[in-house]
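Can you give me the bound-state structure? Components:
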Amino acid sequence: MASFNELAKEYAQRIKQAIKRDGFSHGRKITGSNVQGSETLREAKAIKRDIDNLVYTSSNQPLTPQDRKRIIEQIDRELGLPKRIIEEGFVTNASNDDFSDLADEIENILKGGS
Amino acid sequence: MDASDWISLGSAIVALLSMVVSIVFSIKSSNASKRSNLNAIEANRIAIGQGETALREQILNTRSRSEEAALRISDFLAGRKRENLAEHELSHLDHLENNWRSCIEGFLNAYEDACGKYLDSKTDKDRFRKAYINEIKNICDPKRESYARLMHPDSTSNYQAVWKVYREWHQYE
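Here's the bound-state model for the whole set.
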């Protein structure tokens, strides 16, 4: 397994690329609806799942919550984000985002959309 | 000392012993009461934990049912649009759609139960807020079409506990 720093750099790079693809930049006002369904949000969720599934190569055991937190904090530093955003929102909250996306997709299909 | 002095002394000793016994029992009773209170607090904490787990299970169960209903619709349509379906297929789609709506209603009912428990202080308030804040925000989001039918407008929605919790967390004077 790569070191925590290497992993964090790779994840931060993926988020930066997703932000670029979404066209989010310093000068642009971004609302909640811009973020909903964005590449950035999708990438952040994918990275969260990746981190949750990481295992130690020596023992094949899942990472401890402290080590997961270390990686997330390192991503935070790589992206220049304030620490509290990562700690409060990214780690501890439960989520129904994916289910809500699925539900909206089904509603759209039932209305005759693609 | 004459006999009356002995009687007085005996009475005094009996009174003193009685006082000591009273004090000892009082201390024991107080300790038992404290232990009983601690046990009650512990039992309450366990009950709250079990209640929170049950709420989460209820939400997960309704979510699973909804996911299955979504999958059935997706499998049935297999990329086809409603206007391309035959008459008998439309009728089946209506059935699947009703099932889907019923599942979403059950899903929201589970959140209504959870928010009701929160409002009745039957959950740990801080933990509940931390765990549910994003989920409640999604449910009350008017752009979420899947929930909007049942959640909006808030004044006529049946999910008043959810709305009350949403306002408590997201609206500031």
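A couple of observations. The mean pLDDT of chain B is 90. The two ends of chain B are 84 Å apart (CA to CA).
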